[in-house]
Amino acid sequence: MTDHIETALEAKGISLPKAAAPVASYVPAVEINGLLHISGQVSMADGQLITGRLGDDLSLEQGQEAARACALMIAAQIKLATGSLDRVDRIVKLGVFVNSTADYTDHPKVANGCSDMIEVIFGAAGKHARSAVGVAALPLGVAVEVDAIVALKPA
Question: Among the residues of 12-155, which ranges form H helices?
Fold first, then answer.
């Protein structure tokens, strides 16, 4: 089966990373009643964690790049769970967690890195509801973590 979305990404020079294995007691995705719930995906690129804190040692642009990396990992987890990105009917909601100082307020701008990449990947089906919150710390010291709810087309 041809994965039309992944083929379009390759034409744009975008490739998905290998879906990351869980690092604790959870599964990466659960499908129920046509919804795929993706566990939080941490910022990672080229097999390396993207760590740091916004408002301290990371710039807005670095935070956005970390969020983009989360979007690619979400897509990789969707493909692993469903076999094809073409199964996505709609990205319903993203929850974006930004490792930041107490006075940092650009969480929505950081989260745009993920949101914009999701729309690049899925087009109109990538338009989603979202929350973006700052947190005092994230697992493994990562800069950003994103979870997702995805509506699927019937198999």
Answer: 60-82, 107-122
Calculate the alpha carbon distances from 114 to 24, 33, 103 in Å. 23, 25, 22
Q: Is residue 27 part of a domain?
A: no
* Residues paired with residue 48 on neighbouring β-strands, in sequence order: 45
Strands 129-135 and 88-99: parallel
Residue 86 lies in a domain: yes
* CA dihedral sign of residues 148, 153, 154, 155: negative
Structural domain that includes position 64:
4-20+34-152
Provide block-wise average pLDDT over 10 residues at a time, the chain (155 residues).
Answer: 87 96 95 98 96 98 98 98 97 98 98 98 98 98 98 94
Q: In this predicted structure, what is the pLDDT of residue 3?
A: 86
Q: What DSSP state is assigned to residue 58?
A: B
Longest dimension (CA), the chain: 49
Return the structure tokens found at 108: 């929505």
Query: What does the alpha-carbon distance between residue 70 and residue 121 come to, in Å, rounded to a whole number?
Result: 13
Split into its structural domains, the chain has a count of 1
CB 146 within 8 A of CB 67: yes
pLDDT at site 155? 83
